[in-house]
Amino acid sequence: MSVAQETPIKTVRPASIHRNGRWSGYTHLLEARMLELKREPEVVFWVFAFPLLLAVGLGIAFRNKPAEAVTVAIVAGNNTQAVQGMLAGSPQHDLFKPKVLSASEAKTGFRLGKFDLVVESDGQGGFVYRYDPARPESVLAKSEVNDALQAAAGRKDAVASTAIESSEPGSRYIDFLIPGLLGMNLMNSGMWGIGFALVDMRQRKVLKRFVGTPMRRSDFLLAIMSSRIVLMIIEVGLLLIFGVLFFHMRVLGSIFVITLIGALGALTFGGIGLLTASRAQKIESISGLMNAVMMPMWILSGSFFSYERFPEIVHPLIKALPLTALNDALRASILEGTPLLQQWPRLLVMGLWGGGSFVLALKWFRWR
Q1: What are phi and psi of 250, to 5 degrees?
Q2: Domains assigned to the chain
Q3: CB-based burial of residue 84 (10 Å sphere; 0-12 exposed, 13-18 middle, 19+ buried)?
């Protein structure tokens, strides 16, 4: 009879339970969001390369150029040679391009924009100028030609004056343009990069799957917004370095301050992008909403030209736009070196837009 042997019971210690920290979900979501860029290389072009190409094109098109020659049509008559001689003897003779024509040819050429000014004799030793007050070049041509002819006739200035040429970095169009491109790119990438991505995930039922996980809604939305800060650092750095190297742009402000302003701008438009995409169901819907939100800022907020051109009565409304506050803050810091504390009204505008949008997005966001 076999004797049953008792099998000793081994005590197994429970494996240590790994507990995720408060921000582990946020960090994993942020990491996943950054890795998505590898699957969409076209995003790299639109976020990083396109602003540089835009800066090159506009910088070349609106570069500082020498004063253009004044095209003058001289009506053939008794004083034709005298007028030509006066202009040729002027200290600024290289500025004038006179051409002798008949009265009808001169008037036709001026009407078609071929000439800036028409000069003819009044029959009494004086001159008659035909110019267009709606054309700045025509008004300038009248002033310059009249000064040259009056000086040649013996007029002397009552007060001595000296002219000093000054064309330093900071006053050029490219210096105005680079901060505007920075602001516009932060707006575009923040809203399209977040709003379009969220609606695409909603349409592919990816957001629906997140509902079944223990993920906090705030972690997901905050990770989406924070991903823009990482891209923002690269965007701002590339565009500023490009402006300094290729256009000799002078950056007077602190890089740290500029980065903080850019980060706040990225978060601001990330929040607006979240709010815009909080309930949109289709790509077509979010495209229309994005354009409706961004179009007024493209036109009004001073990315390509100063909003001072608009009537003064609408300036308070324009300054209340987040892109206007971002552009003004970037220009003040980059071109003037304005300290961060002195820009608190602009920072407040961005903070209110970004914070308010994020809070409303948390409340209204739809996962399906």
Answers
A1: -105, 120
A2: 70-152 (3.40.190.10), 169-364 (no CATH)
A3: middle
List of residues 6+ apart from 71 with CB closer than 8 A: 97, 99, 114, 115, 116, 117, 141
Q: Which two tokens stand for residue 217?
A: 């809604």
In angstroms, rounded to a whole number, what is the distance separating the alpha carbons of residues 23 and 29?
A: 10
For residue 316, give the nearest of 349, 351, 272 by alpha carbon. 349
Which of these, 177, 190, 302, 183, lies nearest to 242 by C-alpha position? 177
In SS3 terms, 284-301 reads as HHHHHHHHHHHHHHHHHC
In Å, how far from its chain's centre is CA 361?
Answer: 26
Reduced to 3 states, what is the DSSP secondary structure of residue 238?
Answer: helix
* pTM of model > 0.85: no
DSSP state of 163: -
Burial label, 15 (beta-carbon count in 10 A; 0-12, 13-18, 19+): exposed
Give the type of residue at 41. Answer: P
Residue with tokens 């001073």: 302
> In the chain, what is the straight-line distance between the N-terminal and C-terminal CA atoms, in Å?
70
How far apart CA 366 and CA 198 sit, in angstroms, is 10
For 247-274, the pLDDT digits (tens) are 888 888 888 999 999 989 988 998 898 8
pLDDT digits (tens, 9 = 90+) for 108-126: 888 888 888 888 887 777 8
Phi, psi dihedral angles at 327 (to 5 degrees): -60, -45
Strands (E), the chain: 70-75, 96-101, 117-121, 127-130
